[in-house]
Amino acid sequence: MNNTTSNKRQSNDFFWPSYVDLMTSLFVVMLVLFVYSFKLFKDREGELQQANGELKAKAIELEQITKIRRSLQKLEGRYFKYDPANERHELLVPVQFKAGRDEIQEAYKPALLQAGRTLRSVLKNIKTDQPVRYLVIVEGMAARYPQGDPRNKAEEQTTYQLSYRRALNLLNFWEQNGINFGQDRSIELIIGGSGFYGTGRYQGRREGDNKRFLIQVIPKVGRM
Q1: Residue 175 lies in a domain
Q2: Mean pLDDT of 122-148
Q3: Which residues cross the membrane (predicted)?
Q4: Could you list the residue range(s) of the whole structural domain that residue 204 is in?
């Protein structure tokens, strides 16, 4: 009987320290898990706040771009036509160049001058809540010769330079008459020439109408 009692005491003496150690270990584990979970929650909360901030900024930016596009509709009329398929404006002045030449003929200059003033005025008078920079692309184009004409292949590369020079002459003409887009820090100007190629070309009987200028205005909203 005494041995049994002694064994029970020894068993209890071992059980309770072990039990306390186990509970302590479980408490430590739970504490670590709680701290880790709390950190994950805070990190996630920060990510959500950052995402919400980015979404709000994008929404504001989209709103500004929408306003700008509405304002750019003022270009449409006598001198410009909007091409919704290619999201750009076509200069409606029916400029005709002599074959292989880049000089702008005198007959077209008064209308081109008014078109430049219209473009400059519309861009200058657009009101936005945030800083805006405009990428303005002035693209010259060239018309192909009749189908089967060997000059289409022979002059394929040189027409890129030709159409570029036509666009450059238009910009020089505007500058000579006080329309200088390059002096405005909110406008980044690019001159291009697409030669016999480019999107949205006239086909068939209207091939000759490809001797024209295209104007693209791309707004960039936010910090410059």
Answers
A1: yes
A2: 82
A3: 14-36
A4: 77-220
